[in-house]
Amino acid sequence: MHVFICSAGFEPALVALLGGGKAWGPGVVAVGDAHVVAATDPMFARQILPDATAVFGASIRELAERALEIVLSRLEQCPGPWRLDVFAPDSPVDANLHGETDRRASLVRDRFVVELKARRRAVGRRRTEDAGAMRVQLLLMDRDRLIVSLATPVALACGALWPSPFVGGRPAIGDDWDAPSSAFRKLEEALRWMGTDIALGARVVDLGAAPGGWSHVALKRGASVVAVDRADLDPRVGTHPRLTHVRRTAFSFEPDDPPVDWLLCDVIAAPEKSRGLLDRWLSKDWCRHFAFHLKFKGRGDYRLAEGAVKSARDSGFVVRAKHLFHDKNEVTLWGRRAPREMAPPTLR
Ligand SMILES: C[S@@+](CC[C@H](N)C(=O)[O-])C[C@H]1O[C@@H](n2cnc3c(N)ncnc32)[C@H](O)[C@@H]1O
């Protein structure tokens, strides 16, 4: 059995992508082995717990001991470093509040570590925070049920590790009191997933920029930003010396002197229209990197996002799409231009 973490409410979308499986609770989907091969990195999954087993225990101590029984012999057999992630599913009530179950999960982690030290101190010494190390994941489903998984992350074609480096598929994004909107979290999260940051001096185009959360993220890193939106920007962003506000529609905007370093796009538009916009930018080679939202109405036809990924690849980009922790009914696509193949030397 493999267990996937998604955002609460998106279990049916994940099951549809996997071609099977069952929601175990808000934000948790379990599937048998046969389904996983076809969808290694499904768009709606933020984390995978491969080869997972459920254990039960009435107390924190029992849960920790049962988990240890499952993983200890394998950790002893593998001499390398390993990492421990212990977490609870996202809270269905408030995405930023994980509450009681998370607190209990951290107690399970503490107990697991204490038990491990008592039994096999040498194994405990090999514990690391390295995302590439063998990963023990403990998911506290409810008070007395723990999902246990042990697997070495694999590198996907885009270069990213899977299981993802983020505990429970939730990168920690700090507060930013200067940001004009909470939307800044979405771009910060996308940048964490990309593993590539906006560099000092980068040239950025931000489509659908108002009130300016994403532009703020880019400006903070020392980029120059062209912010395209008919609506007003928050004055803290709009008056920034490295920002130019262009009041027009994103769909007819063309960058000066392409390619720019980054295309950012959070325009509210029908997904077909936004997909056309992305296709245009990538096929014309107008940007080197992008972070782009496709927004859906209702539980829409998410296959459109898969089509957008394919077009981006066809245009020569290394691309990935995910429904991220801070995303609402939208999918974030991100990518970078693949290095162009060197022309073979000509023989004289
Ligand atoms: C979700 S908000 C963007 C939030 C922004 N990323 C932030 O961090 O503050 C969507 C924006 O898209 C803009 N928008 C809608 N249609 C647009 C279009 N055709 N061209 C440019 N902007 C558009 C809206 O005016 C709105 O400001």
Task: Describe the 3D structure.
- The protein is α/β, with parallel strands linked by helices and about 350 residues long.
- It has two domains: about 1-170, VC0802-like (2-Layer Sandwich); about 185-335, Rossmann fold, CATH 3.40.50.
- It is about 30% helix and about 25% strand.
- It has ten helices and 17 strands.
- It has helices spanning about 10-20, 35, 60-75, 100-120, 120-125, 185-195, 215-220, 235-240, 270-285, 305-315, and strands at about 1-5, 20-25, 30, 45-50, 55, 80-85, 135-140, 145-150, 155, 160, 205, 225-230, 245, 260-265, 285-295, 315-320, 330-335.
- The strands form four sheets. A seven-stranded mixed β-sheet has the order 13-12-11-14-15-17-16, with helices on both faces. The chain has a four-stranded antiparallel β-sheet with strand order 2-3-1-4.
- Helix 6 (about 185-195) packs across helix 7 and helix 9 runs parallel beside helix 10 (about 305-315).
- It is elongated and about 65 Å long.
- S-adenosylmethionine binds near residues 208 and 212.
Summarize the structure.
The protein is α/β, with parallel strands linked by helices and 348 residues long. The protein contains ten helices and 17 strands. S-adenosylmethionine is lined by residues 181, 183-184, 207-214, 228-231, 249-251, 266-269.
